[in-house]
Here is the input.
Amino acid sequence: MDTVVSGIRPTGNLHLGNYFGALKNFIKMQNENNCYFFIADYHSLTTHPTPADLHGNVKSVLIDYLAAGLDPEKATLYLQSDLPETAELYLFLNMNAYLGELERVTSFKDKARSQPDNINAGLLTYPTLMAADIIIHKAHKVPVGKDQEQHLEMTRTFANRFNRLYKVDYFPEPVAYNFGEQLIKIPGLDGSTKMGKSEGEGNAIFLNDEPAVIRKKIMKAVTDSGPTEPNQPKPQAIENIFALMKALSAPDTLAHFEEAYNECRIRYGDMKKQLAEDAIAFTEPFREKMRELAADDNYLRRVVNMGKEKAHASAGQTIREVREIIGFKSF
Ligand code: TYM
Here is the structure.
């Protein structure tokens, strides 16, 4: 049986990008693998959240996990900060991670550009913490979206480097996983290529958005005046609307609008109305379950306590073996 690990940062409610890029596959994989899914609360500290915001966001991601169908009896669901073994492994990996390679990571360069007043060491070593999360359970598969591909490459580098340094065949090489398909990148509503929490108001549809909010966001999505020639290539913003429709709507709905586009008779207003209704129908079951879960703190507490125990059992064994390999032997 394969071991599967993945996590999501608690930076607010989850959006359709998180769902299609990651969560949907967590749910598919939980039945047939040894799965660990966590909330990456250590990672979110790079942006210095207040204690109240941090706790609130952790709770909403936990609710989103459960509402989307993760089952704590099948997968181990836990908080990253409940597993100090991860922090210890992160320390070990940092001793063998180099400034040049960390500075070259695209996500680091992007953050350094977007938050020049807060280029902290946690941002620089983000990939070593992520590698620690993954290899602490000796994972084989990591379900993530396209934007995490480079981090997975780094994880393999760090795992291999450890094996080579200590002349052991200890950590497997984990791969970014999407059932043999290309990794997913859900675009934003503002014409940008990625739906994201930090990409600005109106870019993302959140799983807990009310129908009126979804309608408003989709009707405002960037489009243009339409194609002028048959079978014209689609500009990015139009490509985005079609990609969202592919994720959310029935195949014949998509085919109908593709045909209209290719025949230059598409009306984007109609397409967006249809997309909004399909997005509302798609998210409706999540919203209902989220409301129920938000009122059940006892259940949420039971879930994280159970996850913590199971995660400790796995991580504890790894860290004992890693300490032994490194040479921290008891007298
Ligand atoms: P985060 O919190 O930014 O995103 C969580 C997951 O959602 C995916 N995702 C997307 N997929 C497709 N299209 C999009 N527009 C989109 N936006 C987000 C991400 O690819 C990711 O899978 N570093 C990670 C969290 C993390 C982690 C780990 C993941 C920490 N440790 C260990 C896997 C294994 C992150 O910031 O994800």
Summary: The radius of gyration is 21 Å. The first helix runs from residue 16 to 29.
